[in-house]
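G., before I forget:
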Amino acid sequence: MKTADPKTAERQFTTISGVPIEPLYESVPHDVPPPGEFPYTRGIHADMYRGRLWTMRQFSGFATPEETNRRYHYLLQQGQTGLSVAFDLPTLMGYDADHAMSLGEVGKCGVSICSLEDMEILFRGIPLGDVTVSMTINSPAAVLWAMYLAIAEQQGVEWSRLSGTLQNDILKEYLAQKEYIFPPRPSMRLVTDTIEFGARHTPKFNPVSISGYHIREAGSTAVQELAFTLRDGIEYVDWALERGMAIDEFAPRLSFFFNAHSDFFEEIAKYRAARKIWAMAMRDRYGARSERSWKLRFHAQTAGCSLTWQQPYNNVVRTALQAMAAVLGGAQSLHTNSLDEAYALPSEHAVTIALRTQQILAHESGIPNTPDPLGGSYFVETLTEQTESAAQDYIRRIDEMGGMIPAIEVGFPQSEIAAASYRYQREVEAGDRVIVGVNRYQSDDQPIELLQIDESAAQHQEQKLASLRARRDNGRAQQSLDALRRAAEGTENTMPYILDAVRAYASLGEIMDALRSVFGTYQETAHL
Amino acid sequence: MSNPVRVLVAKPGLDGHDRGAKVIARALRDAGMEVIYTGLRQTPEMIVNAALQEDVQVIGLSILSGAHNAIVPRVMELLREKDMTDVIVIVGGIVPDEDAEALKKQGVAAVFQPGASLDAIVRFIRSAVPV
């Protein structure tokens, strides 16, 4: 190593995840094949954004389906190119708005959906054959997806034309976000049911979006995010193969979702390493023959946990830098956070700035003009290789534990994430990590205007549900729930039964209760 | 040297984002306190019962979902019913200023908003708990 300036010699330079940075990078580890070629380190397409820009997809949902439907029409008018549904906590946890556990939570973190009727309102006036829709739903994913399919039927849109993504990634719930309902194994059976059903009926729909986003938000490092996400992906593959499906039948429709955090180059390296690891796993570990199975496609969202409550306008700048990393890393779709999201769900004004940030990147920055502009950079190529090798180590350790479910059961990924998040917070506390406006350059804040959601959304939802229960054919609803229960007790694919229950206007809570009665519920041991 | 302060760190409501609760639990433990973490999805009743059984001096509630105006008053009410008003309640999470003021009027000792330092929370607990 060359001699360094004595003033900087003692100072440690690390990425936000704690990876040491050398004083200078002077070579690349090895040559990397061009974009569009295996293992796709430089991108899954030869022309990348010259062929087609990424999809600008703002995650959105609040209060009632009526109000969220209005926001969707607004976002589409503003040039957004896909929809992404945010559900409230009762919906995510499979409770109706009138359940005791829903107290204070209805419509707060997303839109409340209690039955097919709500979903009809949510997509009113939106032709499902023409938009791509992403739904952030996990434990009850099969039910919300069934509602979506039922609406396509109502609109006369063939299922084969539907394009979109179901998050449906239950494994990361046990690791990070903790919105699980059932124990891991029956949950995995439901996910496998949707993958199998999708392969047969919805060839353009991604039945699962394997997500590192939440792992990172829970405080993991970039390497942990990458490794745990890809190992979750391997787990889904193993279950689908076990079901008797062929790898190339379902692997092309597995999609991914990563965080776009603040350490610019570390993030770009993470996306590049992700494509390489996945391509090699699909080809070499599973013998996939189709190139489409090898290609890792991903959505990115800027890091919610990086947004600060203090000096909220700074969040526009943070988000722009993070979005730039996602685009330089070759994302297929992107959500940019709004400046007010450390406080609340975004106001219309704030979400418009967030969308404009993507449009500026797309049309003014020049970044999309050539694929992987940072390819060949000494630093980026080295960091890509280091990230890949550190992630492979984690993947091997989890393989040795017998896979992701045994690893979750002993709390391995949970403990690793908790330790990383504590280490990071300690560094912030000590001032070793500077967060502008929080632990340095503090100043008085001016208040910003926030979206307010009051309890009227809850009342509205409860009334609608009561009226639906009085109106619907309750005998038919009950029969469909009984049939679902029997199917869940056996080994059949549950999707056709869930579809029947949804069409009979059984509520989300009723359908989830039927499954709870068979599968039981999960309580975790907290790993501090 | 007096006995260590006993703190119940609780996560009420449906939200599963427990990063903050876990970091605080560790920080309080590292500061020499005895910490009991309830785990997720605790109702106000479960939290107050745990506080009673564990004989804690402090309850720390972590709420990020916006449900604080429904949940915290219920906890305060149960503490009054059980004659446990000597237990100090602090709240951490996404709580706007005006809500924070309203919660304090109902007896919450302190509200820590995003960006609050771990040291500030430790110092507050030390100063608030009678020796």
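Chain A has a mean pLDDT of 95. Residues 378-400 of chain A form the longest helix (23 residues).

More on Monday.
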